[in-house]
Amino acid sequence: MPPAPKSGDALFASVDRVNAELFTLTYGAIVRQLLTDLEEVEEVNKQLDQMGYNIGTRLVDEFLAKSNVSRCVDFKETADVIAKLGFKMFLGVTATVTNWDAEGTSCSLVLEDNPLVDFVELPDTCQGLQYCNLLSGVIRGALEMVSMKTEVTWVRDMLRGDDAYEMRVKLIKQVPEEYPYKDDD
Amino acid sequence: MALAAIYNLFIINKSGGLIYYKDYGSAGRMDTNDSLRLASLWHSMHAISQQLSPTPGCNGIDLLQAHNFDLHCFQSLTGTKFFVVCETGAPNMEMLLKVIYELYTDFVLKNPFYEMEMPIRCELFDHNLAQVIQKDRVALLGR
C-alpha cells in the first residue's frame, strides 16, 4: 500500500524553511540585477521565466517524493494539487482555482498572498515588468516533466494595481508517455 | 549484517540511460559496460511489461522474483527509475526506494551543478545513501 498523500499543512510542516524576508529580498536582488544586466524589461521577463522553468523541472520531483501524491486523473485535479499542495509546500500559501473554460483545459490560479512581493513597488520605468514571472516558469517547467505542455501567463498583478495575483494556466497538449513501438510512427 | 541484503542499486533516467550504479557485494561480475547494457535492457523490459497489461493504467514491473534474488523497481511520475537487487524476501524495499528517491531530489536535483539526465556524481548523495543503506532495517520501518 503506498503511503497516503499528505495534506498541505503536513507538507509545509515537513520541509525546511528560511526566513521570509531573506527569501523576498534575495528574489528582489535577483530581479534588480537582471534589470541591470539585461536593461530591457522584456528580456528580464523572459529570463525570469527561463529561470523558473529550470527550477520547475527539478523541483517537481521533490514535490512528488515528499507529498506522496499519485498520478492525477485529469487536469482539474492537477490544478488543485498545484494550488493546495504545491504552493503550500514551497511558498507557504495556497491559491484558489477558478475560471475554468468549458473544455477543462485552462484555469486561473489566484493568489491573495504572495510572499515574493512584500516591500516591492514598481517604478514608472519598469511598468512592463512581470515581477513574479519566475513563478509561472516554475509551473510550466514542473508540468512539462509530468508530460503536460502548458502556457502560463499573468492576467492580474497587484503591483500594477489589480486586486489579486492571477495566473492563467492553459494546457496545450498532453504528451503521451508511451514509447514509439511501431516503425512507421 | 544488514548490508548483505542488498546487492546493487541502479538509477535510470527517463530515456533509459544509467545515471547511477552502486554495488554492495554482488559477485562482482559487472563492469561499466555490463551495467549500462543491463540498465537499458531493464528500461525496455519495463516498457514492454506496460504493454502486456490487459488493463490500462499499468505502471510496469514493480517486483521481479528469481530463486536467488528479488528485484524491486520504482518509477517516479517524471520517468526516473530506481531499482535494487536484493536477497529474496528482503523486507521494506519499497520504502527504501522511496527514501532513495527523496535523497535523489534533495542531494542530486538541488545541486545546481548537477546536469539533468546526466550521470550522478554528487558526494553528498553518496554519503547519505550509504547511511540509509547501512541503517538497520528497523529504522527504515519506522519512517
Automatic annotation (TrEMBL), chain A:
> What are the transmembrane regions?
none
CC per GO annotation: cis-Golgi network membrane; cytosol; endoplasmic reticulum; TRAPP complex
SUPFAM superfamilies listed in its UniProt record = Ligand-binding domain in the NO signalling and Golgi transport (SSF111126)
Which Gene3D superfamilies is this protein grouped with?
Answer: Trafficking protein particle complex subunit 3
Q: Where in the cell is it found?
A: Endoplasmic reticulum; Golgi apparatus, cis-Golgi network
Q: Which domain of life is it from?
A: Eukaryota
| Keyword line | Endoplasmic reticulum, ER-Golgi transport, Golgi apparatus, Transport
PANTHER family (alphabetical): TRAFFICKING PROTEIN PARTICLE COMPLEX SUBUNIT 3
Its annotated function is as follows: May play a role in vesicular transport from endoplasmic reticulum to Golgi.
Q: How does it assemble?
A: Homodimer.
Record's protein name: Trafficking protein particle complex subunit
- Please tell me the species this chain comes from: Sorghum bicolor (Sorghum)
Automatic annotation (TrEMBL), chain B:
Which terms in the GO cellular component ontology are assigned?
Answer: endoplasmic reticulum; Golgi apparatus; TRAPP complex
BP-aspect Gene Ontology terms: endoplasmic reticulum to Golgi vesicle-mediated transport
Q: Organism, per UniProt?
A: Sorghum bicolor (Sorghum)
Which compartments is it annotated to reside in?
Endoplasmic reticulum; Golgi apparatus, cis-Golgi network; Golgi apparatus
Q: Please provide the record's keywords in A-Z order.
A: Endoplasmic reticulum, ER-Golgi transport, Golgi apparatus, Transport
Gene3D superfamilies, per the entry: 3.30.450.70
Q: Give one Pfam family, short name only.
A: Sybindin
Q: Which InterPro entries match?
A: Longin-like_dom_sf, TRAPPC
> What is the official name of this protein in its record?
Trafficking protein particle complex subunit
Record's subunit section: Part of the multisubunit transport protein particle (TRAPP) complex.
Query: What family classification does the UniProt entry report for this protein?
Result: Belongs to the TRAPP small subunits family. TRAPPC4 subfamily.
Identify the domain of life: Eukaryota
